[in-house]
Amino acid sequence: MLRALRSSFFISVVLMSVLAYCALPSWAKDKQANDYPLSGKVLSSSSKGAHSYQVETDSKIYLMLCERVKGFHMGLPECKVDDRPIANGDKVQFRVDGDFAYMPVVNGAEDELRILTTELKVIPPLPPIAAGENGKGSKGDERGMVIGSGMHIAGQKHVAWSTDPSSVQRPFFSAGAPGLAPAPGIAMATPSAPVMAAGPVMAIPVTGGAPVMMMPTGPVGGGPVMGVPVTGGAPVMGMPTGPVMGMPMGGAPMGAAHAGGGGGGPVWVHLLRVRAGEKIYQLECSAKPCEVDKKEIGLGDTLVIRAEKKWAYVSLGANGGGKEQKLRILSETEEDDASDGK
C-alpha cells in the first residue's frame, strides 16, 4: 500500500513537471512581450559627444540620451537594436520606469536611456478658464496644458524639446567649453570646469613611453589625468592626447545624478512645457517630478497659470482648491514663434 502511494506521488510530480515545462515557453514569450509594451520609430539620432535619439510612438515623441549599455566601450555609451547601433528609421521596443527608458539587447540585458523630453504629438484644444476658477479670481490667470515634460541639468538654459527637429543636432554649450557642441549635459574638461570622464582616456604617461588607454579615477580638469590602464596594472599619471568629455561637476552632491548610481555627477531637474493662451512656457521644477499640492503634474494635464516676471504660479483649478505652486520660468515665447522654429 505504501509503495503504491509513493509510486502515485512520484508519477504526479513528474506529470506536473512535464506540464510546467511545456507551458514555460509560452509563459516566457508572453512575459518578454509584456516587458517592453512601448514601440516607436527613431526619427533622428545624434552622436555629438553623446548618443541621443528622437523616438516617435502613436501619441508621443521622446528625446532620449543613451547612458548605460552592456559591456565595456571605448567611448560614450551607444545603444543598440538587433545587436547594432540604433539608426534613423529603426523600430525600437522599450519600457518606461520613472525618468528612464529601457530597451532590450542580446542575452536578456537592457540598455538604459535617460528621457530628456516627452511631448504630445497632437495637442487638443483647451476650454477657456472660468471666472475665479482657481479660487482666487486673480487677474492674468490663464488655462494651460502640459504639452511637454522632461529633465535637464540645473543651470542649463537651452532645452532640447523633442518636437523641434533641430534639437538633436543643435549645439549644447557648457561653461568652460566655448564653441564645443557635445550633447545635453556633456562638456569638455577645463581647469575651471572639471568633469567626470564619460569613458576611457588616451594619455601619454608623464614619465614617458607609449600612450596608455586609461579610466580616470577622479575628476578631470583639463590637465594631467590619474587613471587605471584598461589592460590592468597600477594607476598611471598621464597627459590626455585630446579633449576629455564628460559630465560637468557643477558642485553637485555625491549621488545626485542618478538614483542608486555613483556620485560626482550633475544635478538633473524636472521641466514642464506649458501652452497657455498664445504663449508657451518652459518651467523648471526640482530634482523631484513637478507637482502641485502633492499631486504630480503629468503630460496632458490641464492647469491654471499666472506669470509674474520670472515666476509662474500654477494650480489645478477648482479641483485643486486653488492651491498654487511657484515655478521658475526658463523661457516664454509666442506660440507662432515656437511653431516657426519647429
Describe the 3D structure.
The structure is a single chain. This protein has 2 helices and 23 strands. The chain is mainly β and 342 residues long. Among the domains are: 38-120, OB fold (Dihydrolipoamide Acetyltransferase, E2P), CATH 2.40.50; 187-248, no CATH class. The strands form 5 sheets. Strands 1, 2, 3, 6, 7, 8, 9, 17, 18, 21, 22 and 23 form a 12-stranded antiparallel sheet that branches. The longest helix is centred in the N-terminal third of the chain and has 34 residues, at 2-35. It is globular, with a radius of gyration of 25 Å.
Brief characterization of the structure:
Helix content is 12%, strand content 39%. By secondary structure, the protein is mainly beta. The strands form 5 sheets. Strands 1, 2, 3, 6, 7, 8, 9, 17, 18, 21, 22 and 23 form a 12-stranded antiparallel β-sheet that branches.
Distance between the termini: 82 Å
Strand content: 35-45%
**SSE order in H/E notation?**
HEEEEEEEEEEEEEEEEEEEEEEEH
Structural class: mainly beta
CATH architecture of the domain at 38-120: Beta Barrel
How many DSSP E strands? 23
Q: Total helix count? A: 2
CATH fold topology of the domain at 38-120: OB fold (Dihydrolipoamide Acetyltransferase, E2P)
Helix residue percentage: 10-25%
Major beta sheet summary:
12 strands, antiparallel
Low-pLDDT residue spans: 4-31, 165-183, 251-264
General form: globular
Indicate the radius of gyration in whole angstroms: 25 Å
Task: Supply database-style keywords.
globular; 2 helices; four-stranded antiparallel β-barrel; OB fold (Dihydrolipoamide Acetyltransferase, E2P); mainly beta; 12% helix; 39% strand; twelve-stranded antiparallel sheet; 342 residues
